[in-house]
Amino acid sequence: MTSGGLFRTRPRGLPDFAFVGAVAALVIFGLVMLASASSDLAQKQYGESYYLLLHQITNGLSVGIVGFLAGAFIYYRTWDKFSVYILAAGLIALLLIFTPLGIAQKGGERWVNLGAFSFQPGELAKLALIIYLASWLARTPLRAKNFMEGFMPFLVLVGAVVGLLLAQPATSTAIIIVVGALTLYFMGGARIRFFALAALLVVVGFSLLFAVGGKDDYRVRRIMTFFNQEATDPLDEGYHIDQTKFAIGAGGLTGVGFGQSVTKLYSLPERIGDSIFAIIGEEFGFVGSVALIALFAVYVIRGFAIAKRAPDSFGRLTTIGFVTIIGFQAFVNIAAISGLVPLTGVPLPFISYGGTALAVFLTMSGIVVNISRHSR
Questions:
Q1: Contact 130, 319 (CB under 8 A)
Q2: Cα–Cα distance between 247 and 267 in angstroms, integer?
Q3: What secondary structure letter does DSSP report for 309?
Q4: Average pLDDT of each block of 10 consecutive residues along the chain (376 residues)?
Q5: Tens of pLDDT along 310-330?
Q6: In what order do the strands lie in the sheet with 108-113?
Q7: Runs of H (alpha helix) within 74-187
Q8: How far apart are CA 166 and CA 230, in angstroms?
Q9: 3-state helix, strand and coil shares in percent for the chain, rounded to the nearest 5
Q10: Whole-number mean pLDDT of the chain?
Q11: Cβ-count burial of 269 within 10 angstroms (0-12 exposed, 13-18 middle, 19+ buried)?
């Protein structure tokens, strides 16, 4: 096939093995931790200790491996050609949430049930928006410097995606997507004043959202709990963060040992979701926590190194967008569970339970691997 085909015929270089190794290590460690965190819960709910682990493997990892291999071996410029259709699919998936196919969970309609399987459209939106924005900015580099042809379309598109997410509500996912989009806009050559204006509009927009919600809004309560933890009810708003801190503190330097967490058995909310880092801290201690953070650091550092060597703007921007999304989400999760920022509810990439997120993050990583194979 020609160079514009699905698989390029010219010789390719080797992938970035440090990046691939970081991905593999994160996925394997995630499965190991899920086995520990979910065993008691799965036994109570399904009568099988490894039910949730097997569900993650069959519904998340298996799809993710296919996505990773597709991303790694399909020429990355192919995604550029289909970026409009990928974005359209992502928007349609978000709209399906507001149809009878939408499933309400924990106060928000964040899933779509198609009978044979269900998925989170918000995770697909991360992939779709980054690919489209990278393509859009790369095709006309001067577009980012123009107000009417660059700034306004960017604002409308990102605003539409964020609006659909906030309507679920999925505020944390919206914030992560905004950070990824703004990073792409800046790295795509946006004028500083346009970037600053976009960032200001984001801050004002979310501030108004929280103000309109009032003190009874769950997002406002999380923020108030963070800034006034001493005055919050430890059995109500302050319960979640108190338990995560207790679990991390109980781990000490080296942890209580794999599978020996006590808080996961009795008191830790969302033990297989956004709180799984607390179990890592309890079972593997400070040393294990730092090791996991180091793996994410390798992923991000090698990812940006791949972006720097990317053969063209689309490859560079796509890599930056994917790595920013995953790196920022990991930071937000770890910081929130450690009490450094308000609780968000976002899962820890590659580690937390959730098939859609794992499949999407592996697909993103596969595309980055392909870009690394074509690096200069």
A1: no
A2: 10
A3: T
A4: 41 85 97 93 90 94 96 95 96 92 70 85 95 92 74 91 90 92 90 88 85 69 70 63 87 91 84 92 95 97 96 96 97 92 88 94 97 90
A5: 999 999 999 999 999 999 999
A6: 102-105, 108-113, 118-119
A7: 77-81, 83-96, 121-139, 152-166, 171-187
A8: 30
A9: 70, 5, 25
A10: 88
A11: middle
Which residue, 369, 347, 299, 300, is CA-closest to 120?
Answer: 347
Is there a contact between 184 and 158 (Cβ–Cβ < 8 Å)? no
Residue pLDDT, tens place only, 84-126: 999 999 999 999 998 888 887 665 558 888 877 888 999 999 9
Three-class SS state of 162? helix
Cα 125 off chain centre by: 10
33 neighbors 351 (Cβ within 8 angstroms): yes
Helix (H) or strand (E) holding 112: strand 108-113
- Could you give the 3-state DSSP secondary structure of residue 205? helix
* Long-range contacts from 161-167, C-beta under 8 angstroms, 24+ separation: 161/90, 161/91, 161/94, 161/125, 161/129, 164/91, 164/94, 164/95, 164/97, 164/125, 165/94, 165/122, 165/125, 166/209, 167/98
Residue % of the chain over a pLDDT of 70: 90
> Are 59 and 360 a contacting pair, CB within 8 Å?
no
Q: What are phi and psi of 235, to 5 degrees?
A: -105, 5
Q: How far is CA 243 from the centre of its chain?
A: 24
Closest CA to 149 of 187, 189, 183: 189
